């Protein structure tokens, strides 16, 4: 089962490595991970996507809580009101020839993706959506044109409504 | 105000924290710290012979005294040599602060001489760690380290100090404010009132309850309250190896240690119980046997200060997060408030059943004329010390025999590497214990294998006059491994023979100590008494004992708690 875990922790040297280390040490896998400081620069927020049942997530959540640097941990599946989650994708594609270019432009229009960089032979497309939509977009793009390079940010998530994760 | 160097601030901070003994080993990166230590009148430095020994000694000091053990080593190999000892302390939740030297900050990452990433190497085996960036970090981090090491679920904390942070030419004002505040660290000590009430009701209803005590109760100093609870509710009491002594082993309500080599009655009682009140335990695999067969009929009430320990292996029916002493106090208060009492009828037949199991005398063992049995050694030592010594052990058969036959009546007396199972732990731990408790008799029960893993500390004992008594269960083999080879590898004995042992008596004498050799059963008591009577001497007693002795009873692998064999057949 796909699980998103959000962690607020002290923005200190080594704090991220403790979190990452804990996952491998306890035999859990990190599918993807994002980390950045919050509006309060002394606090970082890490979002980790992992696989596991609810028991596994409860165990890893408790272990994360135990890390001295960690301020709060929350499984983003907890809340009944649901969450907003997004991932950003950049894909660099070959765009030689008029037909290819208009195909790319059509595709971007359908998916509401953007072309953010243009050279004579290469476009960079930017797409922001849920991970599964990003998968769909990437599939569609690679079926139509030659993909040179991709990069995905990993998922970011936030609770809808009243429920907030604050230090 | 006088300005202090980083090294002086470290010493001053340790003094302010009440540190009397520092176990250490000098080296290049900590030269400035050692120089500053010379000026301290409050801190006594015990200089070991190997960083592993130094660090285990700090651990033994902590276990025996309940205070934070502190050790100081240099960078690189100094730090890596402490890794086994840090892991040992981590697995057993021992409060310890390990101060390591580090190369100067400009050199970090350059593969400098004696540089390792100490914080990185120790990351999975510490409660927390710090890398100082400036001299002023030192007092702050050391105070935090002490607070972390000794609060919540205790554990080792590493403070890594680069050489330029203790440079003699840089002086700073010493920050007097000792308050530690960490927003991300607030261990829960008081149990949830609703949960406690539910636990009390379960206790009052239970027909076949068992009180199971672990190392958390030693750390929390929960003895008095647990004894009262057990007596008030007539509870059968069992303990993990780490929990021995919290409840007196000589009390008739004590049914022995549980687990792989626990007593038949303790394991049967667990298996058949309808309520396990588990306090300060973590349900280690050596205790539970197969998890899916663990205590099928029992509701599990699990009290622990570490939420991550609850439902980690055994799923708790009623979790209570809190300090073992505080929660036990809350349970006693709630029982009084609700005027609850135990289930008299249920307990009467429960105790009859337990006594029947107990009558099997599962710890009885075979004897051979003219041959000392390792069990005899522990029994004789128990008699000679009147059960009032601090006993450090190493790991293996002798460790189990101590747990089975030395009837600990007080906590903090059984110093043993329970979680990690570190051979070589016992001797340095005994040294630390004797340093911390100079008025107590401190004995090491070890094996010929384990003792040789930190034998060099004999030199430390001479230099600092640390008269521990060492009893080697010398069976010329790695007994526990041999036992498994006999039981599970069709008797194929692979690399467990130790027939080239040194003459341990001569070794003791070479290091300036006393040595006694004994191989006759009729001379055993006298040899042990003689060793104990030489009060200011370290004595090594080399006791030749049965090579083929077995630790019994023993749980069957992948079975339930109750699946045990009582003898070799």
What's the gist of this structure?
The complex is a heterodimer of chains A (167) and B (569). Chain A is of the alpha+beta class and 167 residues long.
Describe the fold and architecture.
The complex is a heterodimer of chains A (167) and B (569). Chain A has 167 residues and is of the alpha+beta class. Chain A has two domains: 2-75, ACT domain (Alpha-Beta Plaits), CATH 3.30.70; 84-156, ACT-like. Chain A, domain 2 (Alpha-Beta Plaits, 2-Layer Sandwich), CATH 3.30.70. Chain A is 31% helix and 39% strand. Chain A has helices spanning 15-25, 54-66, 98-111, 131-144; strands spanning 2-10, 32-37, 43-51, 70-75, 83-94, 114-118, 122-129, 147-152, 156-159. In chain A, a hairpin with a 3-residue loop joins β6 (114-118) and β7 (122-129). The model of chain A has no long low-confidence stretch (mean pLDDT 93). With 569 residues, chain B is of the alpha/beta class. Chain B folds into three domains: 3-173, Rossmann fold (3-Layer(aba) Sandwich); 193-358, TPP-binding domain (Rossmann fold); 374-551, Thiamin diphosphate (ThDP)-binding fold, Pyr/PP domains (Rossmann fold, 3-Layer(aba) Sandwich), CATH 3.40.50.970. Helix content of chain B is 36%, strand content 17%. Chain B is built from 22 helices and 22 strands. A six-stranded parallel beta sheet of chain B has the order 3-2-4-5-7-6, with helices on both faces. Chain B has a six-stranded parallel beta sheet with strand order 11-10-9-12-13-14, sandwiched between helices. In chain B, α3 packs parallel to α5, α15 crosses α16 and α15 crosses α22. The longest helix of chain B has 15 residues, at 51-65. The radius of gyration of chain B is 24 Å and the shape is globular. At the A-B interface, α1 and α2 of A face β6 of B.
């Amino acid at each position: 089962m796909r699980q998103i875990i959000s962690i607020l922790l002290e923005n200190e040297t080594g704090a991220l490595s403790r979190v990452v280390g804990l996952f491998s040490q306890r035999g859990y896998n990190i599918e993807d991970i994002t980390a950045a400081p919050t509006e309060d620069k002394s606090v970082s927020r890490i979002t980790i996507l992992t696989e596991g049942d609810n028991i596994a997530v409860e165990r890893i959540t408790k272990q994360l809580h135990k890390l001295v640097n960690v301020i709060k941990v929350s499984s983003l599946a907890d809340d009944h009101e649901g969450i907003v989650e997004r991932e950003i994708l950049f894909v660099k594609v070959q765009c030689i020839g008029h037909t290819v270019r208009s195909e790319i432009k059509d595709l971007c229009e359908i998916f509401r993706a953007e072309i953010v960089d243009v050279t004579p032979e290469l476009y960079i497309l930017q797409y922001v959506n849920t991970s599964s939509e990003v998968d769909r977009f990437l599939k569609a793009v690679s079926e139509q044109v030659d993909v040179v390079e991709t990069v995905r940010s990993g998922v970011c998530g936030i609770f809808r409504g009243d429920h907030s994760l604050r230090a | 105000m006088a300005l202090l160097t980083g090294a002086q601030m470290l010493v001053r901070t340790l003094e302010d924290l009440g540190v009397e003994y520092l176990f250490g080993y000098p080296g290049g990166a900590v030269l400035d710290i050692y120089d500053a230590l010379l000026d301290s009148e409050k801190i006594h430095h015990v200089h070991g012979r190997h960083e592993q020994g130094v660090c285990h000694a700090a651990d033994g000091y902590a276990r025996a005294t309940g205070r934070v053990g502190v050790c100081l080593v240099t960078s690189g190999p100094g730090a890596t040599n402490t890794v086994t000892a840090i892991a040992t302390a981590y697995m057993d939740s021992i409060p310890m602060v390990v101060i390591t030297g580090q190369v100067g900050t400009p050199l970090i990452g350059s593969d400098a001489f004696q540089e390792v990433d100490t914080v990185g190497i120790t990351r999975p085996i510490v409660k927390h760690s710090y890398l100082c960036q400036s001299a002023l970090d030192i007092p702050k981090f050391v105070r935090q380290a002490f607070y972390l090491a000794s609060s919540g679920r205790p554990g080792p904390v590493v403070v890594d100090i680069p050489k330029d942070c203790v440079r003699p030419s840089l002086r700073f004002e010493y920050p007097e404010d000792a308050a530690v505040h960490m927003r991300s660290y607030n261990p829960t000590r008081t149990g949830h009132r609703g949960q406690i009430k539910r636990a009390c009701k379960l206790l009052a209803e239970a027909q076949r309850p068992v009180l199971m005590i672990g190392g958390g109760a030693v750390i929390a100093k929960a003895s008095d309250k647990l004894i009262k609870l057990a007596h008030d509710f007539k509870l059968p009491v069992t303990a993990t190896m780490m929990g021995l002594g919290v409840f007196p082993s000589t009390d008739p309500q004590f049914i022995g240690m549980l687990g792989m080599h626990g007593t038949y009655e303790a394991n049967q009682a667990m298996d058949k119980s309808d309520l396990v009140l588990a306090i300060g335990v973590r349900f280690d695999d050596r205790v539970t046997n197969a998890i899916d067969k663990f205590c099928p009929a029992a509701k599990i009430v699990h009290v622990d200060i570490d939420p991550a320990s609850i439902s980690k292996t055994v799923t708790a029916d009623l979790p209570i997060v809190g300090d073992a002493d505080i929660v036990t106090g809350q349970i006693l208060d709630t029982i009084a408030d609700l005027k609850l009492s135990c289930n008299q009828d249920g307990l009467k037949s429960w105790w009859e059943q337990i006594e029947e199991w107990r009558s099997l005398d599962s710890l009885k063992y075979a004897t051979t004329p003219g041959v000392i049995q390792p069990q005899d050694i522990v029994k004789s030592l128990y008699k000679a010390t009147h059960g009032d010594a601090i006993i450090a052990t190493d790991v293996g058969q002798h460790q189990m025999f101590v747990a089975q036959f030395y009837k600990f009546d007080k906590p903090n007396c059984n110093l043993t590497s329970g979680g990690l199972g570190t051979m070589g732990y016992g001797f340095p731990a005994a040294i630390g214990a004797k340093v911390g408790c100079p008025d107590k008799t401190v004995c090491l029960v070890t094996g010929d294998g384990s003792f040789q893993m930190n034998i060099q500390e004999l030199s430390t004992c001479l230099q600092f006059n640390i008269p521990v008594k060492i009893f080697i269960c010398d069976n010329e083999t790695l007994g526990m491994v041999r036992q498994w080879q006999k039981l599970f590898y069709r008797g194929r004995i692979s690399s467990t023979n130790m027939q080239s042992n040194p003459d341990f008596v001569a070794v003791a004498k070479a290091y300036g100590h006393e040595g006694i050799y004994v191989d006759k059963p009729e001379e055993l008591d006298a040899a042990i008494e003689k060793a104990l009577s030489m009060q200011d001497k370290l004595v090594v007693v080399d006791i030749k004992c049965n090579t083929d002795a077995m630790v019994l009873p023993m749980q069957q692998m992948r079975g339930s708690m109750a699946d045990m064999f009582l003898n070799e057949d």
